[in-house]
Write a structure and sequence with these properties.
This protein has 643 residues and is of the alpha+beta class. It has eight helices and 33 strands.
């Protein structure tokens, strides 16, 4: 039996032989050569946006217009289908391979169902129910510029090639969400598409036991033709991998292997151009032929946060199986490829593929999490999208194979441990150069340089951080933002705004992208800007060159207060002000309780620092209250340190 790879090689050989025979007929004989495989190149997609306005009466009257959809419906979710809010006519379009439905994210509309049918080879498909995909920002800073243009929408639907679409939407109250549209993607073609399965490059080589030994063959972003100009910065990374999600796309199962790269490009374009995300949402995609495609940037060497399961994106990765496995059986090649990816990631991050893990539910608008935000859920470490979210994904037939995937991955990981030992990094954690008193626990200057010592074997270093305003909780230590992805320097210069606290870490990276353990560079807080202080009556602004920032706020009035409301996770209260033997005292309160009295009647100093450490971390209003001694106090700055 001829393999796909062998058939393609035979075809190339046939072309070469035919050329030789033809030239021989005219007396010219040349040596037989094998034509090189075409090189992949970035392909710019074409996205058509089709506006959907209300219910088309003629379309509603057509036979099958309201038929039940197949694909992603969730019979266990228990919610009503809702009221018909929008139904488009069967509309002819330009050719496309990937489709989705999006709408304005700034809406209170509760979308309960989105279904699409497309015209392929002149015939209309059945209605396909598309999973409603929540935002990609759970547990992250939802005000971040990376998602400023993000839109609400569905998971993508893949096609073998369509030229028509019809959209149906139901909502809880029958009102359509604003700016509703179908997004149709023609991902273009690349000369390398037909040879994507021929990628015979070996897995990355590394020293034994680093975790890269069992990395499966991966089709890189360059190989599938990613147009990197479509994406942007998506700098969040998980420190520790806890669980691995198995996902599937909606739509066809009849695509050819030569279409797989184009389908990945189409999903990438839908996520970036239609959803407004900085990158494709999945870390990996696997086709029915067993090809594994790199999704998110840096997924081959790290755990970038994606959008595989709203509410649970941090600490997990997603493998999206290309096809609809609610209606078709997964191929053995697909199951083997998924198992290899699971085994590799599990070996790299020491995940028990047959075990369980507890995840905390994050807030993610529209993701249909089965648990409330903040809830802890215990789930398999290798789990389905529908385990935590209201969807049928990855389909009943792939769901039935989950135990096979877990078991095979367990066997592969066990064999790797027996051969190479447990996964370990060849580089150690960097040793920091201790920050100065002006850098921690308060970073008094906006811009500061932090340093560390060289690590033997390091190819480069990465700097990561987590930060929050004084009124917000710090993100989990499982979620980090990449500040510098690659540097050979032994220092980093960062700027931190007033009102923020920052936890800054560094790690060494060995050859082949093998990460070392993270080490803390600094945990520090910036002062709270005086614009965020609330003053009672009796305060006035005074200036002098020896004051911190050349200014202070002064009062002699008994009971005069400065309050900082809504403070979160306060461990130290740091006050900077001027002192003089003739000055008075100031009480420090948290939540109305007096914890400390600061004595400003000390030797003259225009910028003395008072630091009080609370007995435990506190939330609530921080108050500075003037003691009734008739003497003045002068306050220049207040910082609420978390560490």
């Amino acid at each position: 039996m001829t393999t796909r790879t062998g058939a393609r090689a035979a075809l190339r050989g046939l072309v070469s032989t035919t050329t030789v025979v033809a030239l021989a007929a005219v007396g010219v004989v040349l040596p037989t050569v094998t034509l090189p495989a075409p090189e992949a190149h970035a392909v710019a997609p074409d996205v058509e946006n089709l506006v959907v306005r209300g219910v088309d009466r003629e379309a509603k009257a057509q036979n099958g217009a309201l038929s039940a959809p197949v694909g992603h419906e969730d019979e266990e979710s228990g919610h009503e289908d809702g009221e018909l809010a929008a139904l488009s006519s069967q509309t002819s379009t330009d050719d496309f391979l990937v489709a989705g439905v999006t709408w304005d994210a700034d809406t209170d509309a509760e979308v309960t169902e989105v279904a699409v049918r497309v015209r392929e080879d002149g015939a209309w498909t059945d209605w396909q129910s598309l999973g409603i995909d929540g935002d990609a920002q759970d547990d992250l800073d939802t005000s971040s510029a990376e998602f400023a243009d993000a839109r609400a929408g569905t998971e993508p639907l893949v096609s073998t090639g369509a030229d028509g679409v019809q959209v149906r939407v139901r909502t809880a109250d029958g009102a359509p969400p604003p700016d509703l549209q179908a997004d149709l993607v023609d991902p273009g073609t690349s000369a390398a598409d037909a040879a994507v399965g021929d990628d015979s490059r070996p897995a990355a080589s590394a020293d034994a036991g680093t975790g890269m030994e069992i990395r499966p063959k991966l089709v890189s972003r360059a190989a599938w033709g990613a147009d990197e100009s479509l994406g942007g910065s998506w700098p969040e990374y998980s420190k520790k991998l806890k669980a691995i999600y198995v996902h599937h796309t909606a739509g066809t199962n009849s695509y050819k292997e030569s279409q797989s790269a184009a389908l990945v490009r189409g999903i990438y374009a839908y996520h970036t151009k239609s959803r407004g995300w900085p990158d494709i949402g999945y870390q990996y995609l696997v086709d029915k032929y067993g090809n594994v495609f790199q999704g998110r940037k840096n997924a081959n060497t790290d755990n970038p946060v994606g959008a595989q399961a709203g509410g649970y994106n941090t600490g997990t990765v997603g493998i999206s199986a290309m096809g609809n496995f609610e209606t078709a059986q997964p191929s053995s090649a697909l199951l083997t490829a998924i198992s290899k990816v699971v085994a590799w990631k599990a070996y790299l991050d020491d995940v028990d593929t047959t075990g369980k893990v507890t995840l905390t539910t994050g807030g993610s608008t529209g993701s249909g999490t089965r648990a409330e935000p903040g809830s802890k859920v215990t789930v398999p470490t290798v789990l389905m999208h529908r385990t935590t979210n209201e969807t049928a994904c990855p389909g009943r037939y792939l769901a039935a194979k989950m135990s096979t995937i877990r078991s095979k991955a367990h066997t592969l990981k066990k064999a790797a441990i027996a051969k190479y030992g447990a996964s370990r990094s060849p580089v150690k954690a960097p040793t920091r150069v201790a920050p100065t008193s002006s850098q921690a626990p308060v970073q008094w200057s906006k811009t500061v340089t932090y340093r560390w010592k060289a690590v033997p074997g390091a190819a480069y270093y990465q700097v990561l951080s987590r930060s929050a305003r004084f009124t917000s909780e710090m993100p989990s230590t499982n979620n980090w933002r990449m500040v510098v992805h690659e540097t050979k320097n032994l220092s980093v210069t960062v700027s931190t705004s007033a009102n923020y606290s920052r936890d800054l870490a560094v790690r060494a990276v060995a050859k082949d992208g093998v990460r070392g353990p993270m080490a803390t560079l600094v945990r520090t807080s910036r002062p709270v800007h005086s614009d965020s202080w609330k003053f009672s009556s009796g305060w006035k602004k005074v200036t002098a060159g020896n004051y911190f920032a050349d200014k202070a706020f002064q009062t002699s009035r008994s009971g005069a207060t400065i309050t900082l409301g809504g403070a979160n996770q306060v461990r130290k209260i740091v006050v900077r002000g001027a002192t003089n033997p003739a000055d008075g005292k100031l009480q420090v309160l948290v939540g109305g309780k007096v914890y400390k009295t600061l004595d400003f009647s000390q030797p003259s100093n225009g910028s003395r620092i008072f630091t009080y450490t609370l007995p435990s971390m506190k939330d609530g209003t921080v108050t500075l209250r003037k003691v009734g001694d008739g003497k003045k106090v002068r306050v220049s700055s207040v910082a609420l340190a978390r560490w």
